[in-house]
Write a structure and sequence with these properties.
The complex is a heterodimer of chains A (144) and B (79).
Chain A (H helix, E strand, L loop, with lengths): L20 E6 L3 E3 L17 E4 L7 E3 L11 H5 L7 H9 L5 E2 L2 E4 L7 H19 L3 E5 L2
Parallel strand pairs in A: 1-5, 1-6, 1-7
Antiparallel strand pairs in A: 2-4, 3-6
Chain B lengths: L1 H6 L4 E4 L3 H6 L5 E4 L14 H17 L6 E4 L5
Parallel strand pairs in B: 1-2, 2-3
The chains are: A alpha/beta (144), B alpha/beta (79).
Chain lengths: 144, 79
């Protein structure tokens, strides 16, 4: 569906936070260490996304990102992925009863890819389908 | 992306440090942790306290904020 830039799609929250399952969708370039890293070659870019299992161990995640280091220094998330992908903090909120659950999977992309046309026409519709299928109640978006 | 997900009936909330770019997209709900550096948009490595506060601030936008299109500046003195 083509969205007008002026109209802001807005979905009211259907249930309280403490009953809601939360999914992370991030453009911070996070991926599993054994997944293919994002392509940081500027002439090629990268319009793909990765599926991160909901039960992932934070230590199995890393970051690959094309942004210059002075713009987005990936040393911090490589040391502690929760800097940009707060999976452990979400689990603590579940344990404390503040949210209902963590989604069965999460999705990541790499920002700073200049392949905007392909991303808008192909990647985002495919990614949105994954979000809908996951039955998450709400999505937390993070960038770098 | 946020707009695409919202259009399918799933509420979203964004943590952004790039207010200029994100502002152009008029996000349905967003917070900007003021003064944070790229690479730790939720807080510095192993600063669990700040990370948790930023996460809570973003998630609390979901049931509370009813004024889409604005990015809400948030201050975290523990950063």
């Amino acid at each position: 569906m083509e969205l007008s830039r002026k109209a802001i799609p807005y979905t009211p929250m259907g249930k309280p936070l403490h009953e809601s399952t939360i999914m992370i969708v991030s453009t911070s370039g996070v991926h599993l260490k054994n997944q293919e890293p994002y392509n940081t070659e500027p002439s090629e870019g990268d319009s793909t996304f990765r599926v991160i299992p909901g039960d992932v161990d934070a230590n199995d995640l890393t970051v690959t990102h094309a942004a210059p280091k002075e713009h987005y220094n990936t040393d911090a998330p490589k040391e502690d992925i929760n800097c940009v992908f707060p999976i452990d903090r979400l689990r603590e909120m579940v344990d404390d009863g503040d949210i209902g659950g963590v989604a069965e999977k999460h999705l990541t992309m790499m920002g700073y890819s200049m392949r905007l046309n392909k991303i808008n026409k192909e990647t985002i519709p495919a990614l949105v389908k994954e979000v809908v299928r996951s039955k998450a109640d709400a999505v937390l978006l993070t960038a770098g | 992306m946020q707009r695409g997900i919202e259009a399918q009936g799933i509420p979203t909330t964004l943590i952004t440090l790039d207010v200029e770019q994100s502002g152009l997209m008029r996000p349905p709900r967003a917070i900007h942790p003021k003064g944070f550096e790229f690479g730790h948009s939720l807080g510095k490595p192993n600063d669990k306290e700040t990370q948790r506060k930023v996460l809570e601030a973003a998630l609390f936008e979901l049931p509370e904020r009813q004024e889409p299109g604005n990015i809400h500046e948030a201050h975290f003195p523990t950063y």
